[in-house]
Amino acid sequence: MNKSLKIVFLLLLVLQAAPLAAQKIGYIDSEYILNKHPDYAIIQQELENISSEWKKEAQNLDKQIKELTVQLKAEEVLLTEEMYQQRLEDIKLKQKESQEFNSRVFGIDGQYFQKQAELMQPLQSKIYDAIERVTRRNNLGMLFDKAADPSAIIYTDPRHDYSEFVLEELGIEDNKQ
């Protein structure tokens, strides 16, 4: 009796583990998919336009600081100590203004990155939905992103690349030659 109980238990264990071994795994290259999507180029251009405007503003602030510094050096001998200190304070104030502007616009949670997230969110949602449909259609247990920043993928077999399926799901034709 004890031996038959062990056999039944072992059989149940094997039947439970079988579906785990049969899970399919694949990967995509989200960077490749993004670069193929026509909306991505439009978003990148819009971000570039916004960024160049903010960079011009930052350069103007830096130019003003430089001009004030040059002017102070030129008039240094003509100024009283009090006037010299006042102009020095004006320069420091302008430098602080410049740093705050750069931090507010280009900092970690700056306006540039907020705008980027705002513009990219609809496209990312579209791509994610396509990835989900491809994953379900192909019965994948896991799908990795080869382009993810701290990627642990060392080698990929092209047979398991589902990027083309995602592009197809998005209605984007690949122009490979």
TrEMBL record:
Molecular function terms, GO-annotated: unfolded protein binding
GO cellular-component term (any): cytosol
Keywords: Coiled coil, Signal
Single biological process term from Gene Ontology: protein stabilization
Coiled coil: 44-78
Highest rank taxon of the organism: Bacteria
Signal sequence annotation: 1-21
Similarity comment: family membership: Belongs to the Skp family.
Name listed for the protein in its UniProt record: Periplasmic chaperone for outer membrane proteins Skp
Protein's organism: Algoriphagus locisalis
